[in-house]
Amino acid sequence: MKYFAFCCLFAISVVAKDFVGESGGFIAIPVTGETTTMPTFSTNGQKFHLYGLPYVDVQTELSIFDSKITVNPVDFGESRITITNTALVTPSAEDQKRSAQESKQLRSVLSRKSNLTAHSVDFLRPVTGVITSRYGKKRFINDLPRAPHLALDLDGEIGDPIIAPLDGKVILVDNFFYAGNFIVLDHGSSIFTSYSHMHSTDVVVGQYVTKGEKIGTVGSTGRVTGPHLHWTVYFNGNRVNPEKLIEDGFIDTLVGENPE
Ligand SMILES: [Zn+2]
């Protein structure tokens, strides 16, 4: 089986060139041959890998296959809030322990080898509500920097349906300290999505869902100020900007930016 794996890695051939992308964005890498480990799409007879870039706040160079990728930072803006009750800013030792355990559980689920292949990168918007907080926003509480917002917040009323943006398999359904009622979907080819603060979860671990199928409803569970969906998208281990994926003409823009 080992040789089979090596065979498939070498079965693909990447057109070596340099790429420029932005923090949390994507690049389309022209390829020939077959692989199931990365999402692939075709346009005008050319096949591409869709590679998700990490969030960076300084210009960063990556090396993928034989290509050099320059990832430029983006000014996503910031939000500053002041909370006078410090007990609300810092969770209790017990809650910190719980949330650390839950982060570990999430990492473990995301790192499991998937046997699924993503046959499409054409994402549906999981809820109809407007964007209330964009990806990449820097956050400060009482002037102290917190982790940037590496997800997209979409507005909704309690009970609004949340749908699967692509075909996938449910790999986690749980209640987490920060995320509240929480679902993770595996879409194959290293694409995962997660859904936080849900009111109801209508699926179970191991269940396959089809694109457009309802997986639960918008809620305000966990650490939130009001009902919304906090939607996280992972590509090749990076938390990418979900807004890009639901923009009209996303693929055309991407291929246009990195022409042959
Ligand atoms: Zn959020």
**Mass-distribution shape:** globular
Span of the ends, CA to CA: 35 Å
Query: Secondary-structure element order, as H and E?
Result: HEEEEEEEEHHEEEEEEEEEEEEHH
Bound ligand species: zinc ion
Individual helix count:
5
List the quaternary state of the chains.
single chain
Radius of gyration: 19 Å
The biggest beta sheet reads: 10 strands, antiparallel
CATH level-1 class of the largest domain: Mainly Beta
Number of domains: 2
The CATH architecture of the largest domain comes to: Distorted Sandwich
Query: Approximately what portion of the residues adopt beta-strand conformation?
Result: 35-45%
Count of individual beta strands: 20
> Structural class per helix/strand content?
alpha+beta
List the helices and strands and how they pair.
Elements: H1 2-11, E1 13-14, E2 19-22, E3 26-32, E4 40-43, E5 46-52, E6 60-64, E7 67-72, E8 78-81, H2 86-89, H3 93-111, E9 131-133, E10 138-141, E11 144-146, E12 152-155, E13 161-163, E14 168-176, E15 180-188, E16 191-201, E17 208-209, E18 214-218, E19 228-235, E20 238-240, H4 242-245, H5 250-257
Parallel strand pairs: 2-7, 8-10
Antiparallel strand pairs: 1-3, 3-5, 4-5, 6-7, 9-12, 10-11, 12-19, 13-18, 14-15, 14-17, 15-16, 16-18, 16-19, 19-20
The protein binds zinc ion (ZN).
Zinc ion binds at residues 133, 149, 151, 153, 230.
Q: How does this structure look, described?
A:
By secondary structure, the protein is of the alpha+beta class. Helices cover 17% and strands 40% of the residues. The chain has five helices and 20 strands. It has helices spanning 2-11, 86-89, 93-111, 242-245, 250-257, and strands at 13-14, 19-22, 26-32, 40-43, 46-52, 60-64, 67-72, 78-81, 131-133, 138-141, 144-146, 152-155, 161-163, 168-176, 180-188, 191-201, 208-209, 214-218, 228-235, 238-240. Strands 9, 12, 13, 14, 15, 16, 17, 18, 19 and 20 form a ten-stranded antiparallel sheet that branches. It has a four-stranded antiparallel sheet with strand order 1-3-5-4. A hairpin with a 2-residue loop joins strand 10 (138-141) and strand 11 (144-146). The longest helix has 19 residues, at 93-111. The two termini are 35 Å apart. The chain binds zinc ion (ZN). Zinc ion is lined by residues 133, 149, 151, 153, 230.
